[in-house]
Each structure stands twice: as structure tokens, then as C-alpha cells.
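Reopening this one. Same input as before:
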Amino acid sequence: HVQLVESGGGSVRAGGSLTLTCRASTWIHASCGVGWYRLRPGNERELVVTRNTGNNIAYGRDVNGRFTISQVYSDKFYLQMANLKTEDTGLYLCTASLDDNCNYLWGQGTQVTV
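Same output, byte for byte:
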């Protein structure tokens, strides 16, 4: 079964850090780009950070300098979050493609509570 699974969420105090992991059931096609998004209470899904094939990184609002997306390591990649704020609370979802047609999958998300 082809899928993505996020892990590493939890409860942390403001100013703390967490590292989220996105693990795929098979190799991730890094050339398609990967990303992290989040659902905050009362808001629509929003960009956290993406990394594309040229290693260009795009940040969402208010995370640049605090969040870092890793490169792809075969079947996984990470989101390092530092200096967390209460407004970072939400469900964090990863997206990536597991085929060379860049058909993106989404995980079920991991909850981060600050």
C-alpha cells in the first residue's frame, strides 16, 4: 500500500523544538519536490515549507528562520521546528510523490500543540 506517514508531533512549550518525520512506503521521487503543510484551528490548509528539485525552498508565513526542511533521504524527509510559538499549533501534513509522474500523496498528519 503506497502511503506517507508523519510522526514526531506532540505537545511542547513555546520556545521549544520538535522534529517531524515523513516516511514513505517506498522511495520518494525527490525530483518532484516535497513539502510540509499544516491545518491550524479555524484555518485552511497552508504552506509551511517546500523543497523542489533545484533545492529551492519556499517558506510559508512566519516560519522562515525557525523551520527547516531536510533533503530527501531515500524514503523519508524531516521538518525541524525551533522556537515554536502557540500559533504553530496544528496538524502537520507532508506531501511527496512516489512515482516519476509527480502524483503527490498526502499523509494523515501529526498533531503539534504549543
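So the earlier flakiness isn't reproducible anymore. For the record, The mean pLDDT is 95.
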